[in-house]
Amino acid sequence: MEQKCAVCHGLEVVINQRLNANDWDFIVGQMIGFGAQVNSEERKTIVAYLAENFGPQSSAPATPKTTSSAANPSQAYAVCQGCHQPNGAGVAGAFPPLAGHVADILNAKGGRAYLPLVVVNGLQGSIRVGATNYNTPMPGFPSLSDAQLADLLNYIATAWGNDRLLKDFKPYTADEVKGLRKQMTPAQVYAERAKLELK
Question: In 3-state terms, what secondary structure has residue 127?
């Protein structure tokens, strides 16, 4: 399950649910529809695991284990690449590109404080990147440690040529992102995006 599911979202998306096998199968089916690379046998295995460990009667642990990605910052991007793709290009009409767009966010007034809010809390609402509209909800990843969050932000800020588009970028630190964290709904994060006056 970690191998197939955690490439798109953190395990906190799973551990807070208590669903029966039919409901889990429906959700896994939706993820396959969004592009999750899961065959029919893997789907059965994942659904059985979820139903047993995260069903109505289960008592799964409250928080998933996380590891530091400081040795290889690109490892932090593993939670994003299932949707935004390894090359940061996204999927047209479904998941927006990070290549080019992260620089737009960081160059906008207030963008530096906004970007961690998106990663931690998710985003829900229609956005436009380039000539394409996107309206697929993004889950948040609150289980990322401050160090992991800083690694991830620094990676997406400087990968895929974003570094050449940035104005006076200074790498995020764990202490900085700790101070920027706020618990918000994805809709509230969307409202914050409007303040950036992005196209």
Answer: strand
Q: Please give the C-alpha separations between residue 16 and each of 8, 41, 54, 91, 167, in angstroms, as whole numbers.
A: 16, 25, 8, 28, 39
For 2, the token pair is 């970690």
Query: Could you give the residue ranges of the DSSP H alpha helices within 7-134?
Result: 12-15, 21-33, 40-53, 81-84, 101-107, 111-121
pLDDT, tens digit, for every residue of 62-107?
Answer: 444 433 444 455 677 877 887 888 899 998 888 999 999 999 999 9
Closest CA to 125 of 37, 165, 184: 184
With beta carbons less than 8 A apart as the criterion, state whether 143 and 64 touch: yes
Q: At residue 93, what are phi and psi to the nearest 5 degrees?
A: 80, -15
Q: What are phi and psi of 198, to 5 degrees?
A: -75, 155
List b or e across 153-175, with b for residues whose CB sees 16 or more CB atoms inside 10 angstroms: bbbbbbbbebeebeeebeebeee
Q: By 3-state DSSP, what share of the chain in percent is helix, strand and coil, each rounded to 5?
A: 50, 5, 45
114 phi/psi in degrees, rounded to 5: -75, -40
At 107, is the secondary structure helix, strand, or coil?
helix
> Cα–chain-centroid distance for residue 98?
11
* Element housing 198 (H / E): none
136-160 tens-digit pLDDT: 888 888 888 899 999 999 999 999 9
